[in-house]
Amino acid sequence: MKQLLILSGKGGTGKTTIASAFIKLSNAKVYADCDVDAPNLHLIIGQGSEPKKTDYYGLPKSEINPELCIECDQCRQNCRFDAISVKRTYKVDSFACESCGVCEYVCPVDAISLKPAIAGELMLYTNEERVFSTAQLKMGSGTSGMLVTEVKKQMKLADPDTELAIIDGSPGIGCPFIASLSGVDMVLIVAEPSISGISDMERIIKTAAKFGTKIAICINKFDTNYANTEKIELFCKNKGLTFVGKIPFDSDAVKAINNGQTIVDINCASGLAVREAYNKAMELLFKDDNGSR
Amino acid sequence: MKIAVLSGKGGTGKTLVSVNLAAVAQKSTYIDCDVEEPNGHLFFKPIDVQEEEVSVKIPQVDNERCNGCRKCVDFCKFNALAYIKDKLIIFEEICHSCGGCIMLCPEKALTEKEKGIGKMQRGISDEVTVYTGILDTGEASGISIIKKLLVNNKSKGDEQTFIDCPPGSACIVMESIKDADYCVLVAEPTLFGVHNLNMVYELVKLFNKPFGVVLNKCVDGENPAEKFCLEKNIKILKRLPFDNELGMLNSNAEIAARKTKKYYAIFSSLLETVKREVQYETTTNS
Asked: Which secondary structure element, helix H or strand E, spans residue A31, and what is its range?
């Protein structure tokens, strides 16, 4: 299975719009949305079926039994995450608790234990030989990197023999991003021609390079700032990064998305441009490392 | 007065709104908590920048003392320790710095050392004090940087502070809004926009924070985000139009309110609305 991960550093650059177009164009049988904080892919690649839902248990959270607690304050003093507070009784703030178990360890009367906690929901759509793996993290949960790993695991297990999997990545450069990056064959970075976009892109390239992953770059909404678009192209050239295309700003794209369609479902400028980027990206993905296809 | 600006997802205009609000507020503090992709400093271009390393405490092992009992390995919930081939190995990137392993090592073979994970910068841009947190690439979590950024600004109760939050609604965002007096949610007029707005909406409700919405990039025609606000009876603070001039200023990292009178007026009126809302909240809740 070749895995193509679509990333952007910053949100809102059109990652999901491009991922959905790629899924349509490649007729991919397997795909996933790793943006478990704010998944959007299901909104346009709806499967028309109910997903199989599984509760996702993150790390267990601490709980204090007030009947056993002798208010020795050991747990509060040793918690590095300020998760234990005292009002009338000793209490654990489950949002701040990092599940490390120190409080349980230091409690002299065994009043504290770690209890299983649901941190999100995994969803698997299977329909006409297609597999779509996605998830939603519960509000304020901190274990998104682990959930991303589960999304990818669920995707691979459901159809291990398919040729191509397309993954809509997680934003940022932190743990969910690192989790989405692990094990993929290539990343396509969607950049935006803004000063902020360039800064984010450089940070993400730095991180991806640490993992030694193949990198391709395309620019979305390139015509909103030609000078910055040129800067990005030059940057790719200087760094020897493969540049696969430029997609124009297109108000038809917004309409397509709001109708739950991909941009290659309708006849529009951005759709045409994304086809070209797709062909180049696929060529690079399936090219052997020695250069022959 | 602490105003947090959040959006559920990146690219909706969080930085645009928070930077311009801070700029029109004049004497104010701007804190960029999006430590994974900080962008505010690109707009403010602060001067007199002072930098401070941010580090976390992680364990280090004295292999002479370690007798291989594996108590630390069994204890660590994050699998940050492993005992392989008669040697204790520490995976620094996944350590959460809880300190548990050090506490329970019977041989006192583990001690703590500081490990840098990023930095915090403070600079000045006109009358705005600009704080930026920057997570080193390859590090998993910037929460300790955010904590540091916010702790530094805890005492200044009367000054106007604008917090540019990280995207999403996970733990890192919650850390950023904990002490905010008011939350400004920025939303895009798309199907994605509504979905993401709904998530931060749930978050601010969970934390019982007063809030209002800024609709960004409004174009003629249907606006699913506006519909959502009307249905849920959510206060719409401002509708910012999609326009090329603003788009261009913003993509060149210019502060629109400092560039033209038109945008100065727009963001001043937004600030007034927000201040009124905060006042209203404090009087009705006291």
From this structure: strand A30-33
